[in-house]
Amino acid sequence: MGHYIIGVTGASGTCYAKRLMEKLLEGGHQIHLCMTRAARLVAASELGWEEERLEDETYLRTLFHAGERLHAHPIDAIGASIASGSFPVDGMVILPCSMGTLSGVARGASQNLLERAADVCLKERRTLILVPREAPFNPIHLENMLSLSRCGAVIMPACPSFYHGPETISDLVEFFCVRILDQLGIRDEHIKRWTGL
């Protein structure tokens, strides 16, 4: 099974991160989670998680029934395993991705562990997916996204699809997370896909 880094920032949409992590864990994969401080605030607001405990690996493992397959890395732990290109991972997803984090990754700033791990994925030519949750985009946002796309990153805005007949918000989240898994090379056949008219 694979090792995947999940970065969560302070943009709205933590339900996407939660469901993607659940699906990866259900598939037997290892997760390395890194959340910004703003992400912890938003997750507490949107999901009811205990903000002050979201760097506590034991608490997170309990939330996800993950055992030792979930590794939590503090945002300032710049010496963590995922900060080095010699540590093998199969891909990284930043979702939701704030414009501040997207800008930091595009500039190669590496101001925290999340930005550094993304920079490592780019330099090692590993899959890096950024899921911006912003609207509308201004020219700075678009230029940063174009810069990252040219470097090999996948820019995948959280855009819902409706052709599969969603009935709930959970249906929309589920379908989008399956599309992210597609980009990671992980097939999930438990979803209705487009087969033509």
Structural class: alpha/beta
Strand and helix order: EHEHHEEHHEHEH
**Rounded radius of gyration (Å):** 16 Å
- Percent range for β-strand residues: 5-15%
Instruction: Give the mean pLDDT.
Output: 94
Helix proportion range: 40-55%
Shape, per Cα inertia axes: globular
Unreliable sequence segments: none
Number of strands: 6
N- and C-termini, Cα separation: 36 Å
Largest sheet: 6 strands, parallel
Strand line-up in the sheet with most strands:
3-2-1-4-5-6
How large is the count of helical segments?
Answer: 7
Question: How do you describe this structure in short?
Answer:
The protein has 197 residues and is of the alpha/beta class.
Please characterize this protein's 3D structure.
It is globular, with a radius of gyration of 16 Å. The chain is of the alpha/beta class and 197 residues long. The model has no long low-confidence stretch (mean pLDDT 94). It contains seven helices and six strands. The N and C termini lie far apart (36 Å). Helix 1 packs across helix 7 and helix 4 packs across helix 6. Strands 3-2-1-4-5-6 form a six-stranded parallel sheet, with helices on both faces.
Topology (SSEs and partners):
Layout: E1 3-8, H1 14-26, E2 30-35, H2 37-47, H3 57-64, E3 70-72, E4 91-97, H4 99-107, H5 113-123, E5 128-132, H6 139-150, E6 154-155, H7 169-183
Parallel strand pairs: 1-2, 1-4, 2-3, 4-5, 5-6
Helix pairs in contact: 1-7, 4-6
